């Protein structure tokens, strides 16, 4: 067991605690782009009473300042709308002696997820929790002069190790074209070198397919022009099956809920709700029953007949992002999606 750095104890509000009462363990924990650990703090009680143990989850990285700021905001954006759906972020900042950066959150305990004895009969499902998140309008930007929600996010976030600037846009089509497709094309070429063929396809998709499928006067309206458009909602942003499980948030106001469906490692933004479904369908792991239950809460956006193509368009970003990060076979998956969508919606 290692001591807990004072900067982290300060972030948790334990400035004056005996350092021997706080320990840090890195055993059995992991995260793809940072180091992780479990903090245990023993809180002194009145004389004669047992000490109270509190647990927290820690991430550290030598260059994680912006990444942890984004995850801090992402976790709390979700937790503010659906308490208990993800761990709440409690603090982030610089480690002592400029040794890197940290993020500390509530501790998500997976140890009893296979046991039915701690299940709560009142616990909502993943589909229900996701449905609540996606049916709640996102807040307006912090610096907004009005109460109008926009597409974007107050801070940059990271999907894997890809920086997403998340600049705000009034138009969802403009956000998706510029802040996702054209952004990741630039990032891919920075990491993998110029790729004229990929650039041509991504540019055509952003300039032709996106306005056709996601245009402001199209998305959210049926074939007769009836509808109310769409509104921005908070999305997790990286919801593959590896970022969802069943667990219990230790020591939170929701800990009495028992084991429940939870999510973590978000890369949030204010988006069209179906954007979430792209990566959910890319890797599988979520059964049809989940999507059926989800759409009983959040109906498919009009035009419904274009639903599958929209989800493929959203899946495209994650193929391109994985190509930017890992290279290899993800390029062919992206090319296949773009060729199909351009053939259907991007001619002329």
TrEMBL record:
Its EC number is 2.7.1.172. It is an enzyme of class 2 (transferase). InterPro entries: Fructo-/Ketosamine-3-kinase, Kinase-like_dom_sf. The keyword Transferase applies. It catalyses: N(6)-D-ribulosyl-L-lysyl-[protein] + ATP = N(6)-(3-O-phospho-D-ribulosyl)-L-lysyl-[protein] + ADP + H(+). This is protein-ribulosamine 3-kinase. Residues 132-152 are annotated as: Disordered. Keywords: Kinase, Transferase. GO terms for molecular function: kinase activity; protein-ribulosamine 3-kinase activity. Coiled coil: none annotated. Belongs to the fructosamine kinase family. It holds the Pfam family Fructosamin_kin.
